């Protein structure tokens, strides 16, 4: 009986340390109950040795086997699930393995209490060493969990840096190209790409300094993001140019963005009225990401050629007019 209880405790500790990814939580609880019943029955045996009519084996052994069978059945049913197991929000050290160690230590001391002093001393020494090892392991596991959390945070930070502009926090060109490609792979109708270029941004940089220019870029990014409908994406193309992936009525969204920028943007202690040149390119069946961005770029430079604060939608005739001539910002 003691051997069965000890094996149950070892099995539970082993399973508990494998993590809770593919293991059903209720099955783990039933397995813990199995070990507790076995260890509890073993600890009662020395106390009832003088009373054979109170033998608990006939009650506890079937209960142990029954709980073990329930745990196996529960795990078998859980293993048939096809949905992925969610990643736990945080790593927490399970106290159950250490509770099992304490139960085993108590069982050992209880068994040795009725024997010689030498045996009791050996049992106490064994329990002390076991507790010291368990404590050291607990400290190591806590340190490892902290290191893994730091590693996860660093990986998330690197992933964010790889896909986002360092200054504005917007998506970068890599993310934009991927999202446009995915949008074109579905139904391209109702999908548009727009490029927004700030007029006279170089003059702001020269007159007020690059720090104010950077703050203006961040403020404009926030203004654009606030006007976007669900399912949209804004990215920084570089410099003072922004790219937008827009569903639905893109013309209305772009008009709202331009209107909001004209109401003045606060940057570096200055209230700046920002004009922007906007080029819009609606997607068509068979378009590629590069072609759609090229057409939006052509439309944007067509808008800059017409003056400040203009919005132009791409047409095929623009390719001939805009070919090598570009209007400076």
Produce a short descriptive summary.
This is Diguanylate cyclase (GGDEF)-like protein. With 329 residues, this protein is an alpha+beta fold. It has helices at 2-17, 25-44, 57-79, 96-112, 117-163, 173-185, 201-208, 210-227, 250-262, 289-306, 318-322, and strands at 191-198, 233-238, 241-247, 265-267, 270-272, 276-282, 311-313.
The average pLDDT score comes to 81
Overall number of strands: 7
Domain count, please report it. 2
Identify low-pLDDT runs.
81-90
> Can you give the helix content as a percent range?
55-70%
Tell me the Rg in angstroms: 35 Å
- Going by helix content, strand content and strand pairing, the class is alpha+beta
Beta-strand content estimate: 5-15%
Tell me, briefly, the overall form: elongated
Main β sheet profile: 5 strands, mixed
The main sheet orders its strands as 2-3-1-6-7
Topology order in helix (H) and strand (E) letters: HHHHHHEHHEEHEEEHEH
Report the end-to-end length measured between terminal Cα atoms.
86 Å
> Treating each run of at least 4 consecutive H or I residues as one helix, how many helices?
11
Domain GGDEF: 189-316
Pfam families: GGDEF (PF00990)
Organism: Paractinoplanes brasiliensis
Protein name: Diguanylate cyclase (GGDEF)-like protein
List keywords for this structure.
Alpha-Beta Plaits; single chain; 60% helix; five-stranded mixed sheet; 2 domains; two-stranded antiparallel sheet; Rev_trsase/Diguanyl_cyclase
């Amino acid at each position: 009986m003691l051997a069965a209880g000890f094996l149950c405790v070892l099995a539970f500790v082993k399973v508990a340390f494998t993590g809770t990814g593919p293991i059903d939580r209720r099955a783990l609880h039933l397995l813990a109950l199995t070990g507790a019943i076995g260890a509890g029955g073993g600890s009662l045996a020395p106390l009832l040795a003088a009373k054979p009519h109170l033998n608990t084996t006939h009650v506890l052994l079937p209960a142990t086997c029954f709980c073990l069978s329930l745990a196996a059945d529960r795990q078998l049913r859980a293993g048939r699930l096809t949905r992925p197991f969610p990643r736990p929000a945080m790593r927490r050290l399970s106290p159950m393995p250490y509770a099992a160690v304490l139960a085993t230590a108590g069982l050992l001391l209880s068994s040795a209490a009725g024997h010689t002093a030498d045996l009791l001393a050996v049992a106490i020494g064994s329990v002390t060493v076991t507790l010291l090892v368990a404590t050291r392991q607990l400290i190591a596991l806590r340190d490892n969990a902290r290191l893994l959390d730091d590693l996860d945070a660093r990986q998330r930070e690197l992933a964010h840096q790889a896909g986002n502009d360092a200054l504005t926090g917007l998506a970068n060109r890599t993310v934009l190209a991927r999202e446009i490609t995915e949008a074109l792979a579905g139904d391209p109708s109702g999908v548009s790409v727009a490029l927004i270029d700030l007029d006279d941004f170089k003059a702001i940089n020269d007159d007020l300094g690059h720090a104010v220019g950077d703050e203006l870029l961040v403020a404009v990014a926030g203004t654009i993001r606030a006007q976007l409908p669900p399912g949209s994406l804004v990215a920084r193309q570089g410099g003072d140019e922004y790219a937008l992936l827009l569903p639905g009525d893109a013309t209305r969204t772009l008009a709202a963005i331009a209107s909001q920028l004209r109401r003045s943007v606060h940057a570096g202690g200055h209230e700046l009225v920002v004009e922007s040149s906007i080029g819009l390119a609606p997607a068509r069946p068979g378009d590629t990401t590069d072609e759609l961005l090229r057409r939006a770029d052509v439309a944007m430079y067509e808008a800059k050629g017409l003056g400040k604060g203009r919005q132009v939608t791409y047409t095929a005739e623009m390719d001939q007019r805009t070919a090598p001539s570009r209007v400076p910002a």
